[in-house]
Amino acid sequence: MRRAMSPLRAGGRIRGAHMPLAALVLAAALAPDQAAAETASDGAHSLLEEIIVTGSRIRRDALTARDWVLHVDGDDRDRSGLSSLGDLLARLPVSGSPLSTRFNSSGVSGATDLNTIPASVVERVEVLRDGASAIYGSDAVAGVVNVITRKVRGVTARAHRGGFENGGETTDLELALGGAWGATSASAHIAHTDQARVRAADHEQTRWPKPGTGVLHGSTFTPQGRVVFADPNTGRFVNCALNDGVTGVPVYDPADPCGPGDDYHPWSNADRFNYATYNLVLTPSTRTGIFGRVEHETAAGTRLRLRAFFNRRESVNQAAPEPVWAGTLGETGSLMDDIVIDADNPYNPFGFDVGPGGFLTRRPLESGPRIFEQDVDTRYAAFTMEGVSRGFGRAWLWDASLVWSRNVAEQTKHGAHNARRMLLALGPPEGCAGVPGCVPLNLLGGRGTITDAMLDWIGFVQEDSSAQTLRSFVANVTGELASLPAGALDFAAGFERREQDGRFDPDRVVAAGDTAR
User: Fold this and answer.
1) Given its phi and psi angles, is residue 212 left (phi above 0), alpha (psi -120 to 50 degrees) or beta?
2) C-alpha 433: how far from its chain's center?
3) Which of 447, 259, 354, 449 has the alpha carbon at shortest distance from 251?
4) pTM score of the predicted model
5) Do the beta carbons of residue 254 and residue 228 sit within 8 Å?
6) What whole-number distance in Å separates Cα of residue 85 and Cα of residue 311?
7) Residue 352 and residue 343 in contact, taking contact as beta carbons nearer than 8 Å
């Protein structure tokens, strides 16, 4: 029985586990199985095979333990048509939302990637529905997952291709080979998955922020833009959206702002922006994994096991174009709060500074959607010894393992904006003119008014890199201390030493605090 367990925490927070091949977070405890023992009508006793339950260092019979274990195996995966271990486990009956290739966002920090484990390597997954905090730490309050790798004899190959009505074609190629030679066995797995995207805009239930409500729950950052300020010349409060079709420098009527005499109208929820059409229901990715294992049993019955794998993932997420804003009422605490559109900016129709005591927002579609690319390499190696020793007249089960793993990620974001350069491009024209490459920015015009030259000045490609290394040693021993009238008095003890270090190298614009988002 493998001890590759990971903790589960209610609420969806993810935390790495010290055990190998372990990664899964569930939002709440799993529902119990409805299995029950049946008694034969003639009163005869059935002979049942003993099953040892995972989730505790103390070995227990499954029928006497209070915890039920849910099994997911290769047949379940084949029936589902899914290629990803993460997608398969996300279908388990739990509360909460899955974090997998069906999850699209503009970035999640510290999330565990279940797809690092090649699906072809997995024989089965056992899910302990109850908590095991005493064994696996405080995060294991909602359950534990045990990922068990399979042994291969001979050569097996698998090819699978499928898709959806509107995209999402997925190709899986798997090759496994292995054999046994006396007390020694070895196996190797190679897997490659290529998954195409599915756009939210191609499905009625996902093309709006909330199905059936149109733009009601859309974003207040719109392609035409919105201005909120108190006119210093008239004292009138203005909350206006730019009319559709207006380009260039808008017309503003201080005597009747947002009226028929200018290019603005009063802001309402009908002006909200439908960002959902840019999202992806299924994110594209390419995954390649290589896994190997060697196992040997000595004459004394000690089992030695060496496992290693390498996984490379190239994936892409997409979101609506990055919104920008300016003005003190934004109250974001970022550099964008300090941006003022100078009264002399050639694209300012108001004749006074815009920003102090107000704000303006716009979603420049000219920048294109935000594209998040991830290139992630994961390496893992583990050496394990386990066996049975006798002492004090009893048998003691023991195991010890050394684990090393390293994860290196390169993350790239397209469609980002440099807030410090925006501050210069929206400020006094003479300040911008004195800086090579600076071009005054038209943030108050409608869609299509931000030129390529403006984008070259304010846009940038954000490049971040990170790496984490884990080294751990774990040793455990368990056995029966004594036999009591009520049952055996079992014992378990263990030792763990874990070293983990990492680095994060943000883009220089991010490090300087000059990003617009």
Assistant:
1) left
2) 43
3) 259
4) 0.76
5) no
6) 14
7) yes
**pLDDT (tens digit per residue) in 48-63:** 555 555 455 666 554 4
Structural contact between residues 348 and 225, judged by C-beta atoms closer than 8 angstroms: no
pLDDT of residue 26: 30
Dihedral sign (CA 106, 107, 108, 112)? positive
3-state secondary structure of 292: strand
Residue 70 has a pLDDT of 74
Q: Please check whether residue 433 is in contact with residue 473, taking contact to mean a CB–CB distance below 8 angstroms.
A: no
Which one, of 126, 141, 177, lies nearest residue 2 by Cα?
126
Instruction: Write the CB contacts of 365 (distance below 8 Å, at least 6 apart in sequence).
Output: 223, 321, 447
DSSP string computed for 55-118: SSSS--BTTTSS--EEEEEHHHHHHHT---HHHHHTTSS-SS---STT---S--SS---GGGS-
Side chain identity, residue 488: A
Read off the tokens for 134.
């005493």
263: tokens are: 């290019």
Q: Report how far residue 191's alpha carbon sits from residue 29's, in angstroms, rounded to the nearest whole number.
A: 32
